[in-house]
């Protein structure tokens, strides 16, 4: 099967981005498209389709829009955002629009497996010429470019890098449970379960908060990373690691145990609600990507006092990676205006305006860590040294169809009693999903 080349070389991506800690200038020679206004004389509306509608995500989008307006005053940004579900709602709307040949001018898509469905359907334009004219091959890591390349053609422009395997915790809740928040975090899932038991015994109804099905998929992927480790986890997406293996059974049992500590109203919540249970002291822990840092930064919460963070226990030294990127759909009404939007997304100025408030780190290697808040500085450092693995829940590891099959199995499990029978049924569903999609 021909596929996007994310998993094959992704471990090298962190080393390729080691330059993120280096010197930077918004007017650097590497930023050929950042400040030159080197686009066309396009005019009119440019509809930009995302799922960024609140918090740090909306702030990041607003940052891009500001730069876009300054550089291309003849173009009008039209916000086509669809809220909810880490993009699941937006992707459903987008699929319908693409099928009826009514595409937006550009849309957000995760680098990696997610793009493969659009590419194979002939719904995206090749952006290789834009990479050449803007000099992006010199400032984006090769392995990240490989993740958005199919059969030698490049299909999107990355705006950032996010980390998915992060635990956010409330220090006050931990202290009341007899856990020192300043101590080393738990080293394994088993050690974390011991802490969760302490939190439960202290009277906290929800030791681990969670939300709707996609957040449960994200928790599952982090447990798989923790228990299988990086190489075996990546093997799940190539067929080298079998979904019906004993090692996956062990991870699924750990996942079931973690789910037993979660809130019963999870199906009616989205990620900000679950994260805010930690903020408000109603939960001790939440597993979510680093966009949480941007949301809480906007609320003036103080790191170390109001919250702490650490990699999901057992996944230390591994960076669960995703990247938001923008595309040029076939049949876009204003393709030249869309290319100007892409120029802003790929520019040093655009990436700084976007990432400093979104909680992510820049995709460009010529950015300065000093421009970013504390969490992002730590993420830039980790990304340069950790082993990189692709996120399942956020489109890097698998195609949309495979993710949908996994989400269906995980969603069903989320309504179960988390017993051995439910674990067996979950593993069967995941094994069938792999069989269906690895053969496609």
Concise structural overview:
With 440 residues, the chain is an alpha/beta fold.
Architecture overview:
- The chain has a five-stranded mixed beta sheet with strand order 2-1-3-13-6, with helices on both faces.
- The chain is of the alpha/beta class and 440 residues long.
- Helix 3 runs antiparallel to helix 15 and helix 10 crosses helix 17.
- The radius of gyration is 21 Å and the shape is globular.
- The protein folds into two domains: 189 residues, Periplasmic binding protein-like II (D-Maltodextrin-Binding Protein, domain 2, 3-Layer(aba) Sandwich), CATH 3.40.190; 200 residues, Periplasmic binding protein-like II (D-Maltodextrin-Binding Protein, domain 2).
- The protein starts with 5 loop residues before the first helix and ends with a helix.
- The chain has 18 helices and 14 strands.
- Strand 4 and strand 5 form a beta hairpin.
- The N terminus is likely disordered.
- It comes from Motilibacter deserti.
- Belongs to the bacterial solute-binding protein 1 family.
- It is found in: Cell envelope.
- Pfam families: SBP_bac_1.
- Part of a binding-protein-dependent transport system for a sugar.
Number of domains: 2
Helical segment count: 18
CATH level 1 class label of the largest domain: Alpha Beta
Query: Which class do the helix and strand fractions yield?
Result: alpha/beta
As a whole number of angstroms, the C-alpha radius of gyration is: 21 Å
CATH architecture name of the largest domain: 3-Layer(aba) Sandwich
Number of strands: 14
Task: Choose one word for the global shape.
Answer: globular
Nearest-integer average pLDDT: 91
Given as residue ranges, the uncertain stretches (5+ residues, pLDDT < 50) are 1-12, 18-36
- The separation of the N and C termini measures 7 Å
Strand content: 5-15%
Q: Which strands sit side by side, in order, in the main sheet?
A: 2-1-3-13-6
CATH homologous superfamily label of the largest domain = Periplasmic binding protein-like II
Q: What's the helical proportion of residues?
A: 40-55%
